[in-house]
Design brief:
By secondary structure, the chain is an alpha/beta fold. It contains 10 helices and 7 strands. It binds adenosine monophosphate. Adenosine monophosphate is lined by residues 11, 33-34, 37, 54-55, 58-61, 66, 87-88, 90, 94, 168, 177.
Length: 220
């Protein structure tokens, strides 16, 4: 059984929804660098101050910031049985940094313990998805006003909190994020394929179907 689950795919491809489900099913942490960075911004930390300008422009936050945040997180006790990485690594240099972090922790390694799951989907569909994405600031549930709307418009089905739109989910920043994705993140497809740990999933399907396919490819 694999222990490190790396989710790859363009912004808005549905990784967040599936990774949350997988984390519940396997009882392992879901580590999402975008959320960790936004928390640092909210808390006005040194890392948050650096990260903000990059996130607002749809660019990758510098390696040093992201790898320190990830290293801190992966050394916590709840990571001892494995974890799900959502949004990290996002470039070849981050994948190399992950390799070094895993070596320094000495518990898991990419080749034997990790699987990379690539969400395959046309990016034009995704720009529309991102613009229509809403999330609950309290419990983190993600909605889409078109494909997965809340029962009461703008309020979370689970905790009744008013939903929010992420600041970087506007069209201009969304398009910049796709450019960054194509340039920096897409090359990881070949990188993990060559390592022999890549699995692919069709992400332009209903959430429940993607979930069934995900369980099948992971033999769960
Ligand atoms: P996400 O929530 O995954 O869509 O990430 C939102 C933004 O956070 C991205 O557009 C980047 O600016 C930043 N970010 C998230 N993860 C990373 C990462 N692994 N490396 C650099 N920047 C990141």
């Amino acid at each position: 059984m694999k222990k490190v689950f790396i989710f790859l795919g363009p912004p808005g491809s549905g990784k967040g929804t599936q990774t949350s489900r997988l984390a519940d099913k396997l009882s392992i942490p879901h580590i999402d660098t975008g959320s960790l960075l936004r928390k640092n911004i909210q808390d006005n930390t040194e890392y948050g101050i650096i990260a903000k300008s990059y996130i607002d422009k749809g660019q990758l936050v510098p390696l040093e910031v992201v790898s320190n945040i990830i290293k801190d997180r992966l050394t916590k006790d709840d990571c001892s049985q494995g974890y799900i990485l959502d949004g990290f690594p996002r470039s070849i240099e981050q994948a190399e940094a992950l390799k070094d972090i895993l070596d320094s922790i000495g518990k898991f390694n990419l080749k034997d313990d990790a699987v990379a799951i690539y969400f395959n989907i046309d990016t034009e569909i995704l720009v529309q998805r991102l613009i229509n994405r809403r999330s609950c600031p309290k419990c983190g549930t993600i909605y889409n006003l078109i494909s997965n709307p809340p029962k009461i418009m703008d309020y979370c089905d689970i905790c009744d909190t008013k939903l929010v739109t992420r600041k970087d989910d506007n069209e201009k920043t969304a398009r910049a994020r796709f450019e960054t994705y194509e340039k920096e993140t897409a090359p990881l497809y070949e990188y993990f394929k060559q390592m022999g740990i890549l699995k692919e999933i069709e992400a332009d399907n209903p959430i429940s179907e993607i979930w069934e396919n995900l369980k099948a490819i992971l033999s769960l």
